[in-house]
Amino acid sequence: MKISKVFKGFSMEKWGPLLALAILFVISAFASPYFLKTRNLLNILRQVSYTGIIGLGMTFVIITGGIDLSVGSMTALVGGIGILVLNAMGGGPWAILVAVIAAIALGAGFGAANGIIITKGKVAPFIVTLGTMAIFRSLTLYISGAGEFRSQSNLFPEVGMGYFLGLPNPVWIFIGLAVLFWIILNHTKYGRYMCAIGSNERVAKYSAIKIDKIRFFAYVIVGITVAVTAVLLSSRLNSISSSNAGQNYELDAIAAVIIGGTAMSGGSGSIFGTVIGAIILGIVNNMLNMLGVSPYLQGTVKGLVIIGAVLIQRKNNK
Amino acid sequence: MKISKVFKGFSMEKWGPLLALAILFVISAFASPYFLKTRNLLNILRQVSYTGIIGLGMTFVIITGGIDLSVGSMTALVGGIGILVLNAMGGGPWAILVAVIAAIALGAGFGAANGIIITKGKVAPFIVTLGTMAIFRSLTLYISGAGEFRSQSNLFPEVGMGYFLGLPNPVWIFIGLAVLFWIILNHTKYGRYMCAIGSNERVAKYSAIKIDKIRFFAYVIVGITVAVTAVLLSSRLNSISSSNAGQNYELDAIAAVIIGGTAMSGGSGSIFGTVIGAIILGIVNNMLNMLGVSPYLQGTVKGLVIIGAVLIQRKNNK
Amino acid sequence: MAEKILQIKGISKEFSKVRVLNNIKVDIEKGEIFGIIGENGAGKSTLIKIISGLYVPTEGEIYFEDKRITEFKPQTARELGISLIPQEFNLINELSVFENIFLGKEYQKIILLDKKRMIKKSEELLAMLHTQIQPTDKIQDLSVAKKQMIEIAKALAYESKLLIMDEPTTVLTGSEIELLFKLMNRLKEKGVTIIYISHKLKEVREICDRVMVLRDGQQIEIEDTKRMDEHKMATSMVGRELSQIFPKKNQPEVETVLRVENLSVKGVLEDISFDLKKGEILGFAGLVGAGRTEVAETLMGIRKKTSGKVFIKEEEITIKNPTDAVKHSIAYLSEDRQGTGIITTFDIIGNITLSSIDNYCKLLINHKKEREQAKHYVDSFNIRAASLKTRLEFFSGGNQQKVSLAKSLDTKPDIFIVDEPTRGIDVNAKREIYRFLTDLASKGISCIFISSELEEILGMCTRVVVMREGKITGILSEKELSEKEIMLYATGLKGVA
Amino acid sequence: SAEKLRIGVSIPSADHGWTGGIVWWAQEAIKDWNEKDPDVEFFLVTANGPAKQVGDVEDLMVKGIDALVILAHDSAPLTPIVEQVYNEGVLVVSVDRGLTKPVEDIYVAGDNPGLGRVSAEWMANELNGKGKIVVLEGIPCVINSERVDAFNEVMTKYPGIEILDSQPAYWSTQRGLEIMENYLQKYDEIDAVWAQDDDVLKGVLQAYKESGRNDIKFFLGGAGSKEMIKKVMDNDPLVKADVTYPPSMIATGISMAVMSLRGEALNGFYQHQIPSKIILAAELILPENAEEYYFPESIF
Ligand SMILES: Nc1ncnc2c1ncn2[C@@H]1O[C@H](COP(=O)(O)OP(=O)(O)OP(=O)(O)O)[C@@H](O)[C@H]1O
Ligand SMILES: Nc1ncnc2c1ncn2[C@@H]1O[C@H](COP(=O)(O)OP(=O)(O)OP(=O)(O)O)[C@@H](O)[C@H]1O
Ligand SMILES: [Mg+2]
Ligand SMILES: [Mg+2]
Questions:
Q1: Cα–Cα distance between D168 and B295 in angstroms, integer?
Q2: pTM exceeding 0.80
Q3: Which residues does chain D have within 8 Å of residue B295's beta carbon, measured at their own beta carbons?
Q4: What residues contact residue A55 under an 8 Å CB cut-off, 6+ apart?
Q5: Predicted ipTM?
Q6: Pair type for strands C18-29 and C33-38
Q7: Which residue lies with its CA nearest to atom 2 of ligand 2?
Q8: Residues C400/C348, Cβ–Cβ less than 8 Å
Q9: Does residue B318 belong to the interface with chain C, where contact is any CB pair within 8 Å?
Q10: Which residues on chain B are in Cβ contact (under 8 Å) with C54?
Q11: Do A43 and D55 touch (CB under 8 A)?
Q12: What is the pLDDT of residues B11-66, one digit of tens each?
């Protein structure tokens, strides 16, 4: 059953997500006259960049057989502190640079915290990151007194709002990171090791692989992607709202990864797929608005599409 | 490593959750004079029954290596429709009976829907239930126009509010179901098969176990537990709010299961542990209020306790 | 002419257009022991997987007791009374021994499990197999040999008419094998039919009434074993004459590369002391449970030693984990290939370079170099695979074993510990591997050769360490070497036990 | 047709009772206008967070709109995008949650601090300036802080009144129930409860009922759900009043957008334009005026 499926449907595993995207794209193009407008397509791309970037890191974590639920609240916390740094430094170009570096360091640090507890403490990633999800959010609320972090820099918004060669900056960064992560996954030993650990930890151990180290870094990496998103988001909004910035990002990111064909069980995955997955989700949200679906029924449509997108990939295997 | 852990820490795996509970209990008793009041303890027990009951079903799903994120919104949908049935039937004793039966049928049905897509469609449980989570919620909003389902029965609240031999009804039902589920897990073929599938699907297949059937029923069962909770909850409040009834139940239920020592990876689990896990969560919430922890920092404390509760169990293995 | 229990009529099987079985025709008689032999990848396991309902044949029909099998499902096979001991372990680590033995066929009181009865029955079975396994043990903590015995118990746990065994003796030592054969004969008398797959041709000849030879999915011949000898079988399997199977032994140099002093692991090993010369192939013999695997695992840092010293080139070293071991260029070929040897969801390349990836990348992996190395191994061990990109889960058992061997070899070790290296490997490939190891030795690489096949120990080793219950009972020099001598030490009749 | 008025409405999705009310009222208003005036076209989008809402507004801009009616999830995050919209010459009506820059043409809002203040004053009077109060807050966020801070500020004027405790009930009935259960354990005497929100109050009353205690003199919710207004109407001894924070304000905002585009004035107003700031008073509902606030068909 499984065996033959994997066997026959192999190419499908690779192209399934793209097929799903193609279908959705065509439908959308016919369904709404606005869909194909460049501005709309650019919007979609920018809108997906934020969770998409996190999705890249999430792909690594999931490949190692883990998961990170804390990315959403981590986004809020990192973004918030980033803004505080920015304001403290006076909002100039240098301030921005420092803030960005600080944010990335923070993200890596928080990721490392997750990683340590998971690897050294041997606690299930789900529970650890469920815990830190609550912790990060509450620290954000605490620091801001449940208010908003507002940047006083009027230069900062440029980062997230600007365009370069006709594409919004976040999109460039998304693409750039995707390529980088693709290389790491497919062309470095680190990527190889992540897959090995995800598919059979014992064999990996017998094969002289430092399991804990590899898994630890997966969480550090996702932390860094969170930081990047946090910077882009806070500069786009020139602020971070402590109560609901980054809410449900974990779900969107994970959904993107899985729609992209990466197995929840780990062992293998596709960065390319994750990018596609993120775009699929973006198109869905966009179409719900464009077609003016009843607010109450939007959830139904979205749910159906998510399941459908994955179902297509499976079904065609037969 | 793993070997030696299983080897030495065996009893710990069994008693870890209880130890964690004991510690928390003692701390709470000293921290707050109100904690040990019978009334307070009863409140805690009743408060945990709702997610605890779902946690029982969730334990099964997780043992089979799956997960169900849709339980929260399913609670709202089932509860809501249950109330509609109740009102339609006129709110008398018979109406209540019919409504309860209808609710359970619905819960089983929705669970079956999840199960079918997961087993026949071969889609990852995470993604399927992520989808149905959105779908159920949106249907609830749709049916009620984002408003509230109010029961016109003044008999109905008795079900959820009443006491029996000094214990609130929900607690009795929680205990009853826990015992039932414990028997199913440890003393029936079905329980055995769930473990087999969760730990090694190939082997299960070689052993002529009907994998899909077993997994399918796990989701039906969790659906039924959701229905029970939905009934108890709606009768307690004599209403269901479409927008936030059952919100985050999935997280509480899963947390209870894992704090209870069931492995996220499936293959084995403990109903007893889940009950303990639920109570631990209940005590935490209770203490946060009793000690008047700053609203902003409550999340931090809760997160720390959740991680700590699991960490204790691991650490003592060494 | 006895009645036919199983009729296989023109069975063929294709995996993604690749034909691995072609038009197999055979009738198997009630109460016979029917042997199937063939090179790795010949199609033996595939055939019996079809019979036991795990694969659906591409063409052909199967009749069981003159009734045509219409749906190929494990469930139906079981209902018909067909039970299988698969080539790879099929045990649930989380469950206990008795739970595994009765998995899928539990005894029940009304709807509740009847654990007492299952435990009792398991005790009987295990006693019958002379193992000291407790029904309530956890599978996880058992050695492969014990797992194998449990697989056998599992198959015996309920009355079956047709019992299929796919290489059940690969990790068993002589005594267990004898025991198994006794059992098989007893079943035979009870009228149970047995299909027996093995690469140990001596056993096949000893136990089977008839034997079928497969080559590349083709059915070559079906012969009465009386009219076959091992040589004939081998030639018919391979399709050509096979020269002498063991190469000429290589004489080790005087320099000691590895010295172990009073190595102990609580409850498993006690005072293990031996030394290994440059270019030596040092045999480790012993009965199941002797602790040979544990010696290897401890040297690799997989098990924590409780006391003792390890010297390499006369300087003491500490190995805390496999990484350290590899740093000191020690490599280990595990006896449990799927459990600890290879990653079945990886392709050949990914597996072979898993421990040695550093030799293939600066910053980025040099895929070309990887592929060439993989090709090299594929040729030298003639590994049968659809392509280099095929996942190992689709390989035949023996071919998986070859990959596993290549993987540990690729770390370019000075000290190479092999645990049951030829497990499930056909005669021809065995020859290759023996030659290969001897070449390594002549190049000055030392090898610890753990095996349960005395024949190959005698054929390969210049010195043999014999273990019993976690202790070394004797170290036999080349002159003293003989099957009888080894068994005396292994059973504790000789040497300090 | 081309000269049709195109109006985008961007609001939070229904994640608790009040936002549920917002979604409902938005759709009501759109229905009304569609009947009244075929030449207006509405695009309604709902967001579960500020980032999504920014995306929603971007989508609306792609569609091309003459007016944007927006109830921002949060002020600062939405300001930049709304500024863009404003600069592109679209009429912006911002409802309830102010933006951090003056980038709206019309501002319609409930009075969050007002709600806190009115509640506090009424309660203080009822208690004659002395007694013990417990508070159940909403989701920790700006609005909640505005209300609670205003409430506490007023209370400082009444030394006789002691605020025993103040915990977040997340505007959820069940959380309200649980928090109140704990309060009832913790405090042997409570004179009054401020639940700030009628959803929460519902749970609070349930908990009180179950506790069988009778020391609490009265309860005050907020936002004016029809259920609580009914209680006030029926002279419920425990719920003697309610304070409005009407979700219908979104409907008002939508009407203002249409009228202002049509160049209509509010009748009774001598000015030609729609006022640029409309603050809906936090009105105190008492038994004598409760009927006027009671809409049985409303969902909130
Ligand atoms: N599930 C599968 N998918 C694709 N190819 C397969 C699958 N199973 C086996 N094969 C191929 O079929 C051929 C026969 O495999 P099989 O396991 O029957 O060999 P075997 O005779 O058992 O060899 P061995 O002695 O090594 O066990 C091999 O070339 C193998 O690669
Ligand atoms: N993972 C383990 N944990 C604890 N004890 C173990 C473990 N593996 C093996 N043992 C015990 O150690 C002893 C030796 O194990 P094992 O049978 O592997 O030795 P061996 O000489 O390698 O046997 P074989 O002939 O199968 O290689 C046995 O008593 C076994 O039960
Ligand atoms: Mg085979
Ligand atoms: Mg061994």
A1: 6
A2: yes
A3: 137, 140, 166-168
A4: A252, A253, A254, A256, A257, A260, A274, A275, A277, A278
A5: 0.86
A6: unpaired
A7: C141
A8: no
A9: no
A10: 205-206
A11: yes
A12: 566 778 888 899 999 999 998 888 898 888 998 999 899 999 999 999 999 999 99
